[in-house]
Amino acid sequence: MAAPSMGGVSLPRGNGQTVRLPRGASLTDLAERINAQPAALVTALFHLGEMVTATQSVNDETLQLLGAEIGWVIQVVSPEDEDRELLETFDLTFGDEEGDEEDWSARPPVVTVMGHVDHGKTKLLDAIRDANVVAREAGGITQHIGAYQVVTELDGNERPVTFIDTPGHESFTAMRARGAKVTDIVILVVAADDGVMPQTVEALNHAQAAEVPIVVAVNKVDKEGANPAKIRQQLTEYGLVAEEYGGETMFVDVSAITRQGLDDLLAAVLLTADASLDLRANTEQDPQGVVIEGKLDKGRGPVATVLVQRGTLRQGDSIVAGDAYGRVRSLLDEHGNKLKEALPARPVQVVGLTSVPRAGDTFLVVDEDRVARQIADRRQARIRNAQNASMRKRISLEDLDAALKETRQLNLIIKGDNSGTVEALEEALMKIEVDDEISLRVIHRGVGGITKSDIDLALADDVIVLGFNVRAEGQATELANREGVDVRYYTVIYQAIDEIEAALKGMLKPIYEEVQLGTAEVREVFRVPKIGNVAGSLVRSGTIVRNSKARLIRDGAVVADNLSVESLRRFKDDATEVREGYECGIGLGSFNDIKVDDVIETFEMREKPRD
Ligand code: GDP
After folding, report:
1. Which of 96, 130, 289, 435 is least surrounded by CB atoms within 10 angstroms?
2. Would the CB of 460 count as within 6 Å of ligand 1?
3. How far, in Å, are 314, 326, 431 from residue 411 at the CA level?
């Protein structure tokens, strides 16, 4: 087929062949693969109504639309597929348990606590953790590491249960969205003095969508006005029918304050797990699992809490977690105890990584440090590309005019005390909708204090550096002050969102509105040499102001717009303004078509506040 001409640039046409592209590829990437000129693709896409630069990341749909137009089938490879392929090149897979299921060992259930805000998720997690006195005595002060394990007795057997200690369904969905399915059972917390609320339903939907069994903790039963029966009643509408009503869901009345019902709750979790799940794992294979939390520790460097899902993690293992890698220097439990090894469903802090992985990243143990490093490097490159793509909000361009105008962008650098909050903040910020003219982009994110290199990066235009629970370190503050970099500190997400929203609004081009200043009636027209016609007028309303904008109205119709009051006189003297009821001479510059009885209307354009 002949090469079609698009906007004067010729383009090689495909014959329906498939071309594979990573998510977030640019037109230059596509051009390279199909042997075309990037400019020709830019033009072709422009004809389809979208304006992008050759190196900008393009979303899936647009790539496919463009592909169809030029005769190629574009297959966008998802990050998961890409990662699978990456691991395959090293003869590795993630998620597939090896060996014969018969030989696997039973493992504890992993529980996530979800529910409406203020219904007591945090208190309940604290109460369950603190009730585990034995372990605390053994290890000293219990730390918050993002997950913990408690042991409870059921039918005379000591049974461990693992809790993810980052309450809220955001973390649950965030992990699931990354393909890291960690939760076996959800405890849905509902306050007995309140009832089913929007986030209760949301949490329940998430759990049901993930096909995770639910145990309902009816909390705050100590409170006056608590009505546990009402909660059972309400939840039947959502398909959660209590066992005592003939259903399959276990409801347990608890109080996170008086600690009543906590043992029953743990028992309910185990009974539910035993009844509906067969939780087993191979403890012999190379260990794999998921990162629950990552942070930068002042003394120990990057520290990640990981949940082992299969295999046995040991000190000295070569590990790759997301785009971080290293050798496991030490393994610590939630009580600060050093562990030699961690079995499946064991949350454990890993010290020894070279950087901080993100919550929801998967980890693998590999044979050699070299392999861990290569995988991490490849992932790093891929994450950078993907982030550039997804973080640039797509800007819809209505017409050519708007397309050619450069859209403005507010760039952010986000630093925080742990990877979970950095991600939560980034996600929340990306949801801010202001206007199509403005886009928001996170150019860098990370865990730890704000460093000099962050500030260096911010030295471009319109960069705001956000520190969430972290401060600028040493020289960074000095540099930021000297260069006038906008650094803001937050401890509350909502406050950050409000301020960034305000900043975005501040970048919008102002909207102007016309405000009438005054009108004057023309009584006489004077011809003044070198100046032209001057209107001898009487000010009818408001004030006539020199240099203000004006229009001329004759018999109710606008004769001329876009004029201005170029001269204004009271008798022989120049005046800056003349008020209602006074006479004056008005000159409208080179505009001379002025007649007796015309009305001169004056106005100014004032900036209108945006709401
Ligand atoms: P979250 O937002 O779901 O994590 O809720 P929190 O754990 O922060 O609890 C919200 C409020 O309810 C706090 O003031 C708690 O002290 C209180 N609270 C939590 N559980 C109970 C309970 O069992 N009984 C009573 N009386 N108050 C509780």
Report:
1. 96
2. no
3. 41, 32, 15
Output 525-531 pairs: Cβ under 8 A, ≥24 positions apart: 525/594, 525/595, 525/596, 526/585, 528/587, 531/567, 531/587
Tell which of 461, 479, 507 closes a domain.
507
Q: What is the CATH number of the domain that holds 350?
A: 2.40.30.10
Ligand 1 pocket check for 444: Cβ under 6 Å: no
- SS3 at position 339: strand
Q: Does the C-beta of 123 come closer than 6 Å to ligand 1? A: yes
The residue behind tokens 């504890």 is 108
Please check if 166 is assigned to a binding site.
yes
**Same-domain status, 249 and 153:** yes
**118 CA from centroid of ligand 1 (Å):** 6
Residue-wise pLDDT tens digits, 358-403: 888 899 999 999 999 999 998 888 776 655 544 443 333 333 334 3
Expressed as residue numbers, the domain containing 43 is 1-77
Residue ranges of the chain with per-residue pLDDT less than 50? 1-9, 133, 135-139, 389-405
Are residues 423 and 501 both part of a single domain?
Answer: yes
Distance of alpha carbon 262 from alpha carbon 127, whole angstroms? 8
Based on the domain organization, do 138 and 273 belong to the same domain?
Answer: yes
398 inside domain? no
- For 97, the 3-state DSSP assignment is coil
Q: In the numeric block, which tokens belong to residue 243?
A: 């066992």
Quick check: helix, strand or coil at residue 383? Answer: helix
